[in-house]
Structure formats: structure tokens, C-alpha cells
Amino acid sequence: MILKDSTNMSDFLNEYRSRVANKAKNAKEVEKKRAEQAFKSYLDNTPTSQKVQITDVDEPFISKKTKKVLAAITDVTNNDKSVLDEKNLFVERNVNMDVGCYVKFDNQTWLIIFEEHQPLGVKKQYIMKKCNNYITLKYRGNLVQIPVSIENLTMYSDGIADDVYMSYMDSKKQIGYGNNYITRTIGEGFRILLTHETAYKVTHINDFEYKGLIKSLVLQTQILVGDETDIFLANNIGYFNNLSPEKRVEEPKDIKGEILGENKLLLGEESEFIFETKNKEHEFEWILEEDYIFNIIENNGNKVTVVATTNPKYIGKKAVLKIKEKKTEEIIDKIELILRG
Hints:
Layout: H1 2-21, H2 27-45, E1 49-54, E2 68-75, E3 86-92, E4 102-105, E5 108-116, E6 123-130, E7 133-139, E8 142-152, E9 160-162, E10 167-169, E11 172-178, E12 191-193, E13 199-206, E14 213-221, H3 237-241, E15 257-260, E16 264-266, E17 270-277, E18 284-288, E19 294-300, E20 303-308, E21 318-325, E22 331-340
Parallel strand pairs: 16-22
Antiparallel strand pairs: 1-2, 1-4, 2-3, 3-6, 4-5, 5-6, 7-8, 8-11, 9-10, 11-14, 12-13, 13-14, 15-17, 17-20, 18-21, 19-20, 21-22
């Protein structure tokens, strides 16, 4: 009996020590922190883990500025012929990404198409699908290539429709891509070129099934005068001219500028950041990731004041401060903040 009581007391003390060591309020938090530590150890040691580029939410494509993230990538269980190009992706829970973001893996671009919700919330798990083509758009006077995942919907026909006097192509496809400030300019009636000889018109847009992901149905149409087939850029003058007055907007001017300010802050220190730009007529909004490390205390258009936490356990941690144009929601510039001791 004494041995049993002492054993119970020992178990209680061990649990208490573990809880205090992990700065947890109860046993449930202890288990959650253990799960977080186990996942970090998994990321550091598994052979399937590597650093890959992943776009932020609303970032339209991968570029040299796109962040690199440590991620574990595995095959989707029970792959069949329809999902051979799908992979599981695991990252830490504080990574800025969501459905509709792009991943650069194995020299290919992949689209995040689904999120597996986690009961403990200690990590993020997604399913990504390999992009097999791209669409070319013109935005702010520049050519932009958006990676897309295309599925053929012409299952039981040869893609040719017969009329009384002639036959014409009518193949149908579903195109998946990220929902961002560039792709939101695509509407029903918008034309795209998928090859040098094939044009398609958007007939339906599904942007409500998964937040961050757009699935468009397209129908094959004829090549028009003005289609620049050598660079896959479709002529959409008719599309823009037919927009209703409330949807018709002027081509936005290119916004150029840079965030200036001291990005290395001490505990409790304040720092002011200014977005230097000649485009004073635009409205801007500041966004701060990892707001448990830094906080915005004053926001005045192209100026913002940030204060660092006083908690020493976050020394060495980093956060990202971004500025976006309110109307288009385009991220114009960003700067990395570092907490120093």
C-alpha cells in the first residue's frame, strides 16, 4: 500500500515537473507541446524533409523573393491513376500559407488544393497537385505567367460538335489556380491560350468551394485576330469592353516603392517604418505576421510604428511586415523583422 501511494506520488511529481518545464497550465497542454516537439524533430530528421519555396497567401506565383520553408513531402496514400501527381505536404503551424498557394518541389510547381485539418493543431497538412501548364495574362502592362492544373472534361467524345453546315471544336476543361489579386481579374467570358493553336473561353468560375482556390470551366473557342499565339497571350479587348460599368476599371498603374526602417529590434523597443513611393494617390494597408512577437501600435497610411514583445523567450525569432494596396490587395513590399536580446 505504501509502495502504491509513493508510486502515485512519484508519477504526480514527474507530471508536475514536465508541466512546469514546458510552461504548460495543465496535462493537455503538456501533451500538445510534446506533439509539437515531436513534429519538429520529425521535420529535422526525416529523409522526406527539405527546404522548398512556398508562396504567401495572395502571392500570385513563385519568384526569387518567395520564402523558403522546411517541409516534409510524402506520397498520397493509395494513389490511383487519377492522383499520381498529388503529394502530402507537412509544415509547422505558423507558416504563412493556405489552399491556393504554390510550392516549388522537384523542379516543378505544385498547387495546394486541400487542407487536412489537424485535431491538435500542432502542424499544417496539405495535399498539393502538380501544375501541368500555365496561362499568360497582362497585368500592369507586364506579362505574367500563372501556373495552373488542367483536367480534361471531354470524357465521352472527340471534342468536336457537328452543326447543320459545319463542325467545330468544343472540348471542355477544368483549370485550377490560386485565388490572388491577379487571377481575380479573370471573369466569365475571359479568353486564354493553352497552346499555339487552341483558345478557350471561361464559362464558369468556382471560387467558393475552397477559400484560396479557383476552379474555372473553359470551352474551346476559335483563334481571333489579335491573339499573340507566340507568347500564349489571348486577345481580351472584347471581354473588357463588354464589362458592365461598375466592373470596368482603369488599368492600374505600376506601384513602386520600398519599406524603410530599422528591422532589428530589442525587447520592448519601438521602430517606425515608412513606405517610400511616388504613388501617393493609393491607399495602403500594413500586415504583420507572427504578431505575438511584434505588434502594430500606430498606423498612418504609408507609415507604421511597430513595438517588440518584452518576452525574452522570443529572442532570435523573426516576423514579416508587409504593405499592400487596398484596392487590388497586391503585396507591394515586405521586410523581415528580427528580435534581438
